[in-house]
Amino acid sequence: MTNVTGLNIVRFVLLLLIQVVICNHINFLGYINPYIYIIFIFLFPIREERLLLLFVSFLLGLMVDLFSDSGGVHAAAAVFLAYARPILLKNSFGMLYEHQSIKFNSTELGSLISYVTLGTILHHFVLFSLEIFNISNIILILKKTLFSSIFTIILSVLLIILFSRNRK
C-alpha cells in the first residue's frame, strides 16, 4: 500500500466520521446542513483511475446514507459529483488539469475556491432535488442548496487550507 493510498483511506474514514458524528446533527434554521464528506471527492488524486473514484464516491455516499437513513440520495449526489469532477477541474484549473499537474496544496486560492464552489453547488442541488423530489418546491430546493452550500464551501475551504502543508 502506497503512502497516497493510506492517506486516502484515512481521509475517507475521518471525513465520514466527522460527517456522521458532528455535521449530521447541525440543522441551523432548517436550511443549513454542512456536507463536508465531499472534500474526499474534491481531493481524490487526479492520476488515479476514474472508475475507482466513481466506486469510492458511491461507497462514501452509501455510508453517509446508511448513517443518515436518507435512502440513497447522498450516494447518487456523490457519484454525480465524481462524474462531473473532470469538467469542474478543467473549468477551475485550466492547463494545470490538462497536464495532470494539479497539486491541491500548492494551487492558487481563487482556483481552489472556484473548484469547491462549483462542485458543492452541483452536489447540493442534486442532493436536495432528490431529497425533496417535487418540482413545485423548487424554491425550497434552491434555498436549501444556497444556504447549505455557503456553509459547506466555507468549512471545506478552511479544512483544505488548514490541512494542506505547502499553501502559497
From TrEMBL:
The keyword Transmembrane helix applies. The chain crosses the membrane at residues 12-44, 51-67, 73-91, 112-133, 145-163. It comes from the Bacteria. Keywords: Membrane, Transmembrane, Transmembrane helix. This is Rod shape-determining protein MreD. It comes from Winogradskyella arenosi.
